[in-house]
Specification:
It contains seven helices and 26 strands. It is globular and about 70 Å long. Helices cover 11% and strands 27% of the residues. A hairpin with a 2-residue loop joins strand 12 and strand 13. A five-stranded mixed β-sheet has the order 5-4-15-10-11. It binds the ligand Nc1nc2c(c(=O)[nH]1)N[C@H]1C(S)=C(S)[C@@H](COP(=O)(O)O)O[C@H]1N2 and molybdenum atom. The site of molybdenum atom has 6 residues, from loops.
Length: 447
Amino acid sequence: MDNKNNKSPSDKHSKGLHELYAEDPIKADELLWNRKTDKSSRRGFLKSSGLLAMVTAIGASIPFSKNMPAGLIPAAFAQTDEPFAISGKEGLVVLNDRPLNAETPPHLLDDEITPAKHMFVRNNGLVPDIKSLDPASWTLEIAGESCASPTVFTLAELKSRFKHYSYQLMVECGGNGRSEFAPAASGNQWTTGAVACPKYTGARLRDVLEACGIKDDAVYIGYYGADLHLSGDTSKESISRGVPMSKALEDETLIAWAMNDEDIPLLNGHPLRLVCGGWPASTSGKWLKKIVVRDKIHDGNKMASPAYHVPKYPVAPGTQVPNEDMEIITSMPVRSLITFPKTGITHPLGKPLAVRGHAWAGDLEVAEFYVSIDFGITWQKAELRAPVNRLAWQHWHSELTFPEKGYYEIWARAVDSEGESQPMVVAGWNPKGYLNNACHRIAVQIV
Ligand SMILES: Nc1nc2c(c(=O)[nH]1)N[C@H]1C(S)=C(S)[C@@H](COP(=O)(O)O)O[C@H]1N2
Ligand SMILES: [Mo]
């Protein structure tokens, strides 16, 4: 028996209002209120079944329920860990809703392979309408002045003509950690959660480009996606970035149609995305429509300094740096997360505390990992595993014992294969707030 199609409306209510609203706010509205989606009616009449569901979810009666504006989502829900957030996502913290940007709290990045529901979202423009993202009619154009035979492939052709590869790949926004810079840099105030490492499946960009002929003068590729500029102006791209040929032709650089063996989530680029693991994720174009092979550094939107550029030399916080003194970000720096336990826990004295997380280092590997419970005075070496493939994060774990009761911080620090360590305090200030790879730290109370 197929239970899925056998749900009565009361089953739907037992799902919980958060989920109902997250999945389909309009449907939820219709289910709960005695009305169609008439946004002009200021007050609605809560159906008795709807009231029951709401009261159950809130855990208290609603004396003035009959005065509630139709479609009102109770403010009480905003106090839960999982607000009526984003369809297909769970527990993400929304930093901006236009364009939609949301990050993942560290304890929700505990999985070795990041599940779709916990992958952050970073949009520069307007998310394409799901109806315009039909995999059956999707095409990818390969063109540009350094492409010998420009070609348009259907998604089906990409899948049938080219060998499939799967890799777990690091996708981290260049601005991850921006919130810690002072003076503050403008842009999304990411803390630690603009990062993920899902498994992608697709064709190698190299195979596809080689099938179209790469001219000798090729130096760069650039992508174009189907999302519109925030202004809605169809003559502008929301973002169109790229990478040098050396990165484009790496084994792991994919034109991906699947994430974790499923369709790529709508917000993360369905039905096709470029993935350049280990580089600022702005190079991993979503809703991928076109790739150009260029005879110069790609000049699409957000390629010019100061976007995704950092000073060529260290500068004092707050310095105005001329554009010509900035250089484009390539590989992301060494960084790590403590994904277990969640910050703020209490733990009994005398019982060892297991801690774990992930570490990554852009194009490099992480070579060593350390944890400290005394604010970085002494460091204990943690167990560190090799990556499942190049450009995937590595897992670390350790066990900590505490000398007495009280407040502690656990600090975690990765060192890459070239001996570069994460800094304990905020990394080099830069005008746009990129590449903060400072140590992640969490609080624990030993009782
Ligand atoms: N078409 C398109 N691709 C894009 C973006 C975008 O806004 N549009 N944002 C980029 C940036 S800045 C980042 S950090 C990543 C975020 O990927 P995610 O939303 O799947 O987490 O996508 C990149 N690719
Ligand atoms: Mo980004």
